[in-house]
Write a structure and sequence with these properties.
With 297 residues, this protein is of the alpha/beta class. Helices cover 35% and strands 20% of the residues. A hairpin with a 5-residue loop joins strand 2 and strand 3.
């Protein structure tokens, strides 16, 4: 099954896929021809999805000045709190209209929608910081800057998937994500985690700017032996872009300038640095540890 998935999810040829699984390219072709149609016809079993609600405030132009108020989007508007089911995407609750100049933190409590969603897991963006019962996004994206070793890419992708990262971005002039050595090193994690390549850090910064514009306070953290904070001192519970540098030279000057914080891994032996993929694994473990501890509170 993994061989078939590798064929359909990558741009590898039969001659490249065969050696990854220890068979000839003709044998790989026969496996794909035989199992492919059967897997396509297999019934899909959906995993159970908890009834998570996603809430957000919607500004609505309103003429009734007794209820509406001037806001940055409209001359007079109301703030309507709307909650949808995360699985069905259907509206499950509406709050009472609030003046348009009220932020979502206040409108959430005063509109009554918090009572309608009582006992149900609720998610929202960063504008709901004042409501501890509302979970905010915990996005964790790993950036690998100009990696030269396909094996390191595969190992990093494997660790990222194991410790709950949202995705991996490879930037700059780098080794091929789909190199057979990279595919072999990630042991299938490439098919369970979004992995993309972009030409430079500017494309990532543009995406981060869009995320921040949506009200999500995403932080950019870089790993560096001269970092100010130890890994355990950094707050990984917030949405974070974790930047890992090149195996030889570390992070590029462009990435260093854009990082909100440089973080180091405390080391006590004679070694002056860790392998890039190993350093990424340490950071990912610390992130998973902090987020698990926060979830238990």
């Amino acid at each position: 099954m993994l061989l078939v998935a590798a064929y359909w999810r990558t741009n590898l040829t039969m001659r490249q896929i065969g050696p990854l699984f220890g068979v000839s390219h003709s044998a790989a072709h026969r496996v794909i021809d035989t199992l492919g149609p059967l897997l396509a016809l297999a019934p899909v079993h959906r995993r159970r999805v908890d009834q998570i609600a996603i809430v957000d405030g919607t500004p609505i132009p309103t003429r009734d000045h007794r209820l509406a108020a001037p806001s940055k989007n409209y001359r007079y508007s109301t703030n309507l709190q709307v909650a949808i089911d995360a699985h069905t995407r259907l509206v499950v609750a509406l709050g009472d209209p609030q003046p348009g100049n009220r932020n979502d933190t206040i409108a959430y409590r005063h509109s009554g929608i918090d009572q309608k969603l009582a006992g149900r897991p609720v998610m929202a963006d960063g504008t709901y910081r004042g409501n501890p019962e509302v979970s905010r996004p915990t996005m964790l994206t790993v950036v690998f800057d100009r990696p030269t070793s396909p094996g390191n890419i595969g190992t990093l992708v494997r660790s990222a998937e194991a410790f709950g990262a949202s995705g991996v971005i490879v930037t700059g002039h780098a080794a091929d994500v789909y190199d057979p050595k990279a595919v072999r090193a990630n042991t299938g994690s490439l098919f369970a985690l979004p992995v993309v390549r972009v030409p430079s850090h500017q494309a990532v910064l543009s995406w981060v700017a869009d995320v921040r514009a949506d009200g999500i306070g995403m932080s950019i953290m870089g790993t560096d032996e001269r970092g100010i904070l130890d890994a355990a001192e950094y707050d990984f519970t917030q949405p974070t872009v974790t930047s890992i540098g090149n195996e030889t030279t570390g992070l590029s000057s462009g990435w260093r300038e854009t990082c909100d914080q440089l973080v180091r891994i405390p080391m006590f032996g004679s070694a002056i640095s860790l392998n890039a993929a190993t350093a990424a694994t340490v950071m990912l473990y610390e992130s998973a540890r902090q987020r698990a501890a926060a979830a238990r509170r």
